# Entry
Amino acid sequence: QVQLVESGGGLVQAGGSLRLSCTASGRTFSAYIMGWFRQAPGKEREFVAAISWSGGRMHYGDSVRGRFTISRDNGKNTVYLQMNSLQPEDTAVYYCAADPRIGSSYIRHSASEYNYWGQGTQVTVSS
# Structure
C-alpha cells in the first residue's frame, strides 16, 4: 500500500511558476513509476507527466511539454512537478499517482493504470 500526499498548489498569475511535491509512504517508492495528472471542472482527468523509477525517463502531455518538468528524489520518497509559464488553462486540481507494477519499465499515460492516488492540490492561474 502506498499513501501519497501532494503539496505546493496555489494561486499564481499567468506566466508564473509553481512547484508541486508529492511525498509517498512505504519502502518501495523507488520501484514505482510516478505520474502527475490534472482535472479541471467538467473535464476528464488528463495526463500531465510521468517518470520512471530511476528518474532516467520522463513523459509529458502535449499541453505541458516544454513548460513542465517532472523529477524525483528516491531518497526523500518525493516526486516533483516544476511548472513554468503557467497559463489560465492550466487551472485544475493536480494529482500524483503511482503505477502499482513494481519495477515496471513501461510508462503509462492512462489514469486507469495507476492504482494509488493523492488527495490532489489546487492550482489556479489568473489572467
User: Anything to note?
Assistant: The two ends are 40 Å apart (CA to CA). The mean pLDDT is 95. Residues 50 and 61 are 9 Å apart (CA to CA).
